[in-house]
Design brief:
Layout: E1 14-18, E2 21-28, E3 31-38, H1 44-52, E4 61-67, E5 69-74, E6 79-82, E7 87-90, E8 94-99, E9 104-108, E10 124-134, H2 137-144, H3 146-166, E11 170-174, E12 179-183, H4 186-202, E13 207-219, E14 222-224, H5 226-236, E15 242-246, H6 247-250, E16 259-266, E17 275-281
Parallel strand pairs: 13-15
Antiparallel strand pairs: 1-2, 2-3, 3-9, 4-7, 4-9, 5-6, 5-8, 10-12, 10-13, 11-12, 13-14, 15-17, 16-17
Helix pairs in contact: 2-3, 3-4
């Protein structure tokens, strides 16, 4: 028979002390509910990096701020400052810190708070990423009108997916006007990118494409890691109907029928060292 289960955060199942952060946990059913008291001056990217070897917090939080003020910044720059009695939901990939001179007291009730401050157990693989983006999609949608744009976008999506299937690519996600896909073969990724470039140009919906090989973290229904950001930066260097390839992928290609033109070493946001980038030449 199911029974009511009651616990107090003042008498927790576990208490953890970290620099400027005290956490108390209770386990109720399959959930872990935690209360954290965070002292002024604490910041994830400063104090938790040494504990987790992660520059950003990779835990999904749903929290209630009881007192103090708390700030969160996502890896894409989105920022929020939380006030007392606000409930807020924060996806993985964020920095966080206390605002002002008052400790911040939070309750996390999503159920995965026990992982906070512990090195994550991650599945990582090396893969070749292909990232696409329709050039000037907003202006094109405005020019064509909603009905025609939806038809053109649907045709674009069918063309891309058909080529991903042909070249054994795995679709990771779509941004609405672009795709991110993974390939076991760097050569297959390059050939797929060229095929997508030609097909989309044929329907007058040209794309820019980035191809990059690196290590990614496997997440539920998604991937993460620096390699994903690098692929986006490489793609952004291209013009309409261009396939841009990083040196990490170029070095794996031994097919003499493919020609590449160096665009030089590029300093890409988020990468510590310059990365040479090539354009695929017909």
């Amino acid at each position: 028979m199911a029974r009511i289960e009651r616990k107090r955060l003042d008498n927790p199942d576990e208490r953890r002390e970290l620099p400027l952060l005290t956490m108390a946990f209770v386990r109720v059913g399959s959930l872990a509910v935690g209360r954290g008291t965070v002292q002024p001056g604490w910041r994830w990217s400063t104090h938790m990096l040494r504990e987790t070897d992660e520059p950003l917090c990779q835990i999904h939080h749903t929290q209630l701020l009881l007192s103090g003020r708390f700030a969160v910044r996502m890896d894409d720059g989105e920022y929020a400052e939380i006030e007392p009695n606000e409930v807020f939901d924060v996806p993985p990939g964020h920095d966080a810190w206390v605002v002002g001179d008052e400790p911040a007291v939070l309750v996390d009730f999503l159920g995965n708070i026990e992982q906070l401050g512990r090195p994550a157990s991650k599945d990582r693989i090396v893969t070749t990423l292909v990232m696409t983006d329709i050039v000037d999609s907003t202006a094109t949608a405005s020019r064509l009108g909603d009905t025609t744009w939806k038809q053109k976008l649907g045709e674009h999506n069918r063309l891309v997916r058909a080529r991903l299937e042909r070249y054994l690519g795995k679709e990771v996600n779509t941004t609405g006007d672009g795709f991110l896909a993974m390939f076991a073969s760097a050569l297959g990724a390059i050939r797929c990118a060229a095929s997508i470039r030609d097909a989309t140009a044929g329907i007058r919906l040209p794309v820019r494409i980035g191809v990059h090989t690196g290590e990614v973290e496997l997440l539920p229904g998604d991937i993460g890691g620096v390699a994903v950001h690098a692929a986006a930066r490489v793609m952004a260097l291209g013009q309409a109907s261009e396939v841009m390839v990083s040196s990490s992928t170029r070095g794996l290609i031994e097919d003499g029928r493919l020609r590449f033109e160096s665009r030089g070493a590029q300093r890409l946001k988020g990468l510590t060292t310059p990365l040479e980038v090539f354009a695929l030449v017909d």
